[in-house]
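[agent] plan:
  1. take the single chain provided in the ticket
  2. run structure prediction with default settings
  3. attach structure tokens to the ticket
  4. add a short note for the reviewer (M.T.)
[agent] executing step 1
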Amino acid sequence: MDFLWQTELQCAIELKTKLELLQNSFDLHGKSSFIWLGPYPILLITDPEHHMLPAFYVSCSEMLSKWEEIVPKETSFEVDVWPDLQIMTSEVISRTAFGSSYEEGRTVFELQKNKLSM
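[agent] step 2 finished; step 3 output follows
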């Protein structure tokens, strides 16, 4: 029992020192900073979704406006959303990772799709 207690205490002490290291890095350099673990730099990004939200908004807005054009006003309509969701996913990946739209990287995504189907 004493061994478990000592192990838990050591883990808590190590965790506290590591969290203090992170907090000091945030205080000195801001939310996006880096720390060194031995010879290796470690990049700390505390809010990565913040930069992705505009891409999600644009891609979702484009998809919804496309659906609004397809569906007649004040009627019920069945829409196959799967192809549009695949395109929207590729669009978001393309905008967040490469800074371009899906249309610009269409050939790359089509080649990937063909490769997966083989």
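[agent] step 4 note for reviewer: The beta strands are 32-37, 40-45.
[agent] ticket updated
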